[in-house]
Every structure is written in structure tokens, then in C-alpha cells.
Design goal:
The structure holds two protein chains of two kinds. By secondary structure, chain A is mainly alpha-helical. Chain A is built from 14 helices and five strands. In chain B, strand 3 and strand 4 form a beta hairpin. The chains are: A mainly alpha, B alpha+beta.
Chain lengths: 276, 263
């Protein structure tokens, strides 16, 4: 039992946070709770503090909308928040799609899809930045927020809070895509919101730290990591994971039996030493 | 013929072309989808909504207006509704806007897609200045136009006597009864839809359409000569001369000319 808790403690906590937030949002619409109103695009915390999706606001800016003060404050709050806890902490701790893609990755591993498709991934992880750029260009040309009209994230989140419609189809599409087409396909390659938070997370404070002297080179962390390119230092150097693409999901920390990975605060001194 | 390995230069150019091509391709597909997905115009927005084009770029689809509405009037468009996804709208026949004096749905909007200033007269919120749509009467199916007495829409109207009035006229068929016809006045109607909700016919004979759809436009060519205000438009009117093949010859000439042209 202790073993299970140890190797899934952060995953359990993440599901608790993800589902808890959904319940709070749902309660706001269904029963008039005022703890967390709205949805992931823009919310109101305790009826006072606004928090808005900075990527959506950026698309609005490109679409030519006038950005209201409330929105700018909300964007500021969200940006500061994810600057502190890690840009893509949104992806692994908040985003409801994460549960779908984590499940797809789990099934993929279990049924042996990874052996079938081989290690070589047919798509680049840089794709998301191209899609991010493209979404801004299309927003500017079409005069609407391009990604917000196709985003399965807001579709599903809005669906859970306000009524699903055919939104469940988006879940099925992403699940099947991640399962049969591309490993970590949506979150790790395509999602421009993840790409946006990757860029923001380049500067964020909470980072995973590798302790090389404890490492036994079991490579369990690299197997479970959905963005395993960020763990390039494993068994080589005691470094912090500084790539913005790390989602701070802490899977690597919980599967490590040798205390070779832990959370830490970004240290500037170390950055200078390694030249990063 | 043996194929030669690609040079670095060629690889670079090919990769550039590939990236550009893929971006163009997906850009067109994405734009085409967006164009279709935002095309629906028969949608009634909450009070104070910006013009549809501006609304679509400004609304962040957070649903705070939906949560603020005490009557469950507002909904967010779901996938499958065939409306611009995630944006708020209402269907008056199901639940009209009850025109709350404090308009709770508007001040909560974080982006200004619902514009408080458009509903403010002399520093106070005024729901009567809302413009969500316009009521339209289908005279064929309205039983009041048949001669049956019904004033359900008139009674339901929150600004009765201004937005809807009853016009009395003689029923020639019976010779002794009156028609009591509901008439909508577009300057006062807010498009709240309480009339549509109240209408007794199977499918409502009075219904709300977006103003853009419901109204025509006379344009600048016609001036009400009997209206002093409207006449003023003539003052700074500019002459626009249309030159076509026909007007090369003046009308007189063509009428008085010989008939040769005709044969």
C-alpha cells in the first residue's frame, strides 16, 4: 500500500486537483457557488479575483479586439501564477484533457502499441509552436480567436460546466489519436496552449531537480515522462529541468526509487555555471 | 540512373518549402472551418452585446453571463448546436430575457463583449435601451389578424404601449366587430422575446429576429419631403452622376429621334 502511494502520490494529487476544480466550476453554474465561477477561459475566484487565459487574450489582440481592463488584470494574475508554479503546470494539474491523454498513454503502454509503432516518433515536438504561430496569423486574418473556436480543451471544460452537446466527440478523437496515431500526440506535439505555456514556463520558478549521485540509471523516469526530451541530464549531470516543456507533473519524481529527482526552486547560480 | 544524395543546401530549401507548404495548407483548412463555424447569424445575444463581428472576436466564452442570469435564459452554444461555439445566446420561446433592471449578465463580462456603456443612460443602467433583436409578426398566422380577439403578446410586453400597440380597425367580414392587431414599434422593442414566449399559436406568430435580419434599409436615395429633419439631408447631398451607354444620348433625343433604330 505504501508502495502504491509512493509511486502514485503526485498523480493522485493531480487528479484530486483536476477533478476538484471541475467540481467547483460545475457547482458555480449548477448551484450558484461563488468559489470559482466561469471556466478555464476566464474565471472569477471568490467573486473577486479574475483569472483569464493569456493565450486567448493574445488571440483577441491579434483578432483586433479591444482588451478590457478586467481581462488584462485576469491575464496578469494567470501569467504571474503560472510563472511561479511552472508554465505547463496548467497542463498536468488543471487541464481536463490531461486525464484523457494520460489514460491513452497508459493504455498504449499496456497493450503494446509502443512496440508496434517503434521508438521513432513521426512528428516533431516543435509542431506546437508552429500551430501557435499559425493560430495568431489566422486570428489576425479572420478577425476571430482562431484556436478558441476549435479548442477541445475549452470545448470539454465548457461541456462539463455548461452542457456537453457533441463535445464528448473531441475526447474520443484525442484519445484515439494519442492511442493509435502518435504517442503523447495531443499534449506533447500539437496543443498550442501547451506550446504557449512552454514558452511562459521557460522562466518559471518551480523546477524538477536531478541528483546524479543518487541515480542508478534505471530510466523509469524517461519511460513515464510525457516530454522525455526534457530529461536529457538523467545519469549524466545534477541539473535542474529547465525546459519549459516540462509539465511539472512529477511522474518522474514519484517513480524514482532512489531519490534522484525532486522539486526545487529555480536556482540562478546553477544556471550561470552551466551557461543556461 | 543512380540518385545522388541531397546536398545540405537542397535539404534546407526543401525543408523550408515543406514547412511553408504545410502551414499554408493547414492555414486554409483552419480558416475555412472558422469561416463556416462563425457564419450563423440567426442568433440572439445577451443585452449589450457588441455587433456580431466584434462580439465574435471579443467574447472569451467564459459563461459568466450565463451564470449571472437568474432565469436560466442564457446558454453557451455547444458542439452540435451549429452556432459559433461557446458563445452565449437565448431562445425566447424556451426562455425569454426578463429584462432585469440591474442587468446582472452585463457587468460580469470580463472582456466588454457585453458592453455596459451601451446600456447606460445618464449614468444609470437602463435595460429598456437594450437591443437584442426585433419582434416580427407573421400576419398570416396571428389569430388577431384573423379577427379572433387575442392580445397575449401585447400584455406580455414589458414596455407595452410603446414596443407593441394595438391597432383597431373594422372587420368588414362581420360588419360589426373590430380587428385588434398587434403592431411592433422597432424604435422601442428590445427583442426580449416575452411576446414570443406568450404567443398562443402552435408555432409563435410573433417572434424575435436579429435586427440585421428583421429590418430592411431605405438607403440614402429617398428623403421624406414632408419631414423637416429628413429634408436637411439634402443640404449636403452631393451629386452623383451615373454614366452608362444609355445616357450618352439624352432621354429626349432618344424619344424624339427617328424610328430607324427600332427596325
Amino acid at each position: 500500500m505504501k508502495k502504491i502511494w509512493d509511486s502514485y502520490r503526485y498523480s493522485i494529487l493531480r487528479r484530486f486537483v483536476q477533478i476538484g476544480l471541475l467540481v467547483l466550476y460545475f457547482g458555480a453554474n449548477a448551484w450558484g457557488w461563488t468559489i470559482l465561477e466561469g471556466n478555464l477561459s476566464s474565471s472569477l475566484i471568490m467573486g473577486v479575483v479574475p483569472m483569464s487565459d493569456p493565450y486567448a487574450a493574445l488571440q483577441m489582440l491579434f483578432a483586433g479586439a479591444v482588451l478590457a481592463t478586467d481581462l488584462l488584470i485576469g491575464v496578469g494574475v494567470a501569467t504571474l501564477f503560472y510563472f511561479l508554479i511552472g508554465g505547463r503546470a496548467f497542463c498536468s494539474w488543471v487541464c481536463p484533457i490531461n486525464m484523457v491523454t494520460d489514460f491513452a498513454a497508459f493504455v498504449r503502454e499496456k497493450i503494446g502499441m509502443n512496440q508496434l509503432t517503434g521508438v521513432k516518433q513521426p512528428a516533431s515536438r516543435k509542431l506546437r509552436y508552429w500551430i501557435l504561430a499559425l493560430s495568431l496569423v489566422i486570428s489576425a486574418i479572420m478577425g476571430v480567436t482562431a484556436f478558441e473556436f476549435i479548442s477541445p480543451i475549452s470545448m470539454v471544460h465548457r461541456g462539463i460546466v455548461f452542457g456537453m452537446g457533441f463535445g464528448w466527440a473531441a475526447v474520443v478523437i484525442i484519445f484515439l489519436f494519442d492511442l493509435f496515431v502518435l504517442k503523447n500526440g495531443w499534449c506533447g506535439h500539437i496543443c498550442p496552449l501547451g506550446g504557449f505555456y512552454s514558452l511562459l514556463g521557460k522562466f518559471s520558478l518551480i523546477r524538477v531537480q536531478h541528483l546524479e549521485e543518487n541515480c542508478t540509471l534505471c530510466m523509469k523516469c524517461k519511460v513515464v515522462c510525457p516530454e522525455n526530451q526534457v530529461l536529457h541530464m538523467i545519469g549524466k549531470e545534477s541539473l535542474q529541468v529547465l525546459s519549459g516543456e516540462c509539465t511539472n507533473c512529477a511522474r518522474c519524481i514519484e517513480v524514482c526509487d532512489d531519490d534522484a529527482l525532486k522539486f526545487s526552486i529555480r536556482s540562478m547560480a546553477q544556471n550561470k555555471k552551466t551557461g543556461e | 540512373m543512380k540518385k545522388q544524395a541531397l546536398t545540405d543546401r537542397r535539404k534546407f530549401i526543401l525543408n523550408m518549402a515543406r514547412g511553408f507548404g504545410l502551414a499554408t495548407m493547414s492555414g486554409f483548412i483552419w480558416s475555412a472551418y472558422i469561416d463556416e463555424a462563425t457564419a450563423s447569424s440567426l442568433m440572439l445575444r445577451p443585452p449589450g452585446a457588441l455587433k456580431e463581428n466584434d462580439f465574435l472576436k471579443t467574447c472569451i466564452k467564459c459563461g459568466l453571463c450565463v451564470e449571472a442570469c437568474p432565469y436560466d435564459t442564457l446558454m453557451l452554444a455547444k458542439p452540435g448546436d451549429n452556432k459559433p461555439i461557446g458563445t452565449p445566446f437565448f431562445v425566447p420561446r424556451e426562455m425569454p430575457c426578463y429584462m432585469c433592471p440591474d442587468i446582472p449578465c452585463v457587468p460580469v463580462c470580463p472582456t466588454g463583449a457585453l458592453d455596459e456603456s451601451s446600456l447606460t443612460t445618464d449614468g444609470v443602467l437602463d435595460i429598456n435601451s437594450a437591443d437584442m433583436g426585433l419582434a416580427v409578426v407573421d400576419e398570416e398566422s396571428c389569430i388577431a389578424f384573423w379577427g379572433i380577439q387575442c392580445d397575449a403578446c401585447y400584455r406580455a410586453c414589458p414596455i407595452l404601449g410603446e414596443a407593441i400597440t394595438i391597432e383597431y380597425s373594422k372587420n368588414e367580414r362581420t360588419g360589426k366587430h373590430a380587428f385588434m392587431k398587434p403592431i411592433v414599434h422597432s424604435d422601442a422593442c428590445t427583442g426580449c422575446g416575452m411576446c414570443e414566449r406568450a404567443c398562443v399559436t402552435e408555432k409563435p406568430a410573433i417572434f424575435i429576429l436579429p435586427r440585421e435580419t428583421a429590418q430592411g434599409k431605405a438607403g440614402n436615395y429617398y428623403i421624406k419631403g414632408w419631414d423637416k429633419e429628413d429634408e436637411k439631408r439634402l443640404k449636403d447631398a452631393k451629386e452623383i452622376k451615373t454614366t452608362t451607354d444609355l445616357s450618352k444620348k439624352s432621354a429626349m433625343d432618344s424619344l424624339n429621334g427617328s424610328l430607324e433604330d427600332l427596325y
